[in-house]
Amino acid sequence: MLAAVALGGALGSTLRYGVSLALPHADGGAVWPTLTVNVLGCFVIGAFTVLLAETERHHLLRPFLGVGVLGGFTTFSGYLADAGGLLATGQPLYAALYLLLTVLLALPAVVCGAALAGGLLTRSRRAPGTATGGEP
C-alpha cells in the first residue's frame, strides 16, 4: 500500500509541477497554478468518491489515486503559502480574494464532480437500446 501511495504522490506532484509551468507567474500570478490544481483536484475527488462508492475496485485504487495522486496534485500548504506571500508583499486584499475565491470554487467543484460521476454511472446502468432503461 505504501508503494501505491508513493507512486501516486510522485505522479500527482509531477502533474502539479506541470501545471505550474503552464500557467502565468508574472505580477503576482503565482497563485493561479495553486488555485487551478486545488479546484481541479476537488472536482476529481468528488467524482472519485462517487465512483469508488458505487463500483467494484481494486484495494489499492483509493490509496493510489485518492491519497497519492490527488494528495500530491493538490496543495493546502501551497494555498496558504501563496496567501502569506501576498500578505508579505503588501497585497492583503488580493490575499483575501484569493483565499475566498479558492473556497468558493473548490466546494462547488466537489459537488459538480460528484454529480457528474453519479450521472455517468446512472447513464451507464441503463439498459442498452432504451432511453430510460425500462422496458422497450
TrEMBL record:
* Superkingdom in the source lineage: Bacteria
Summarize what activates or inhibits it: Na(+) is not transported, but it plays an essential structural role and its presence is essential for fluoride channel function.
Q: Where are the transmembrane segments?
A: 32-53, 60-81, 93-117
Q: Does the keyword Amino-acid biosynthesis apply?
A: no
Q: Which reactions fall under this protein's catalytic activity?
A: fluoride(in) = fluoride(out)
Compartmental location = Cell membrane
In alphabetical order, the GO MF annotations are: fluoride channel activity; metal ion binding
Keyword Thylakoid assigned to the entry: answer is no
Q: Which GO terms describe its biological process?
A: cellular detoxification of fluoride
The record's HAMAP family line, in alphabetical order, gives: FluC
- From the Swiss-Prot or TrEMBL record, give the protein name: Fluoride-specific ion channel FluC
Question: Per the UniProt entry, what species is this protein from, by scientific name?
Answer: Actinopolyspora erythraea
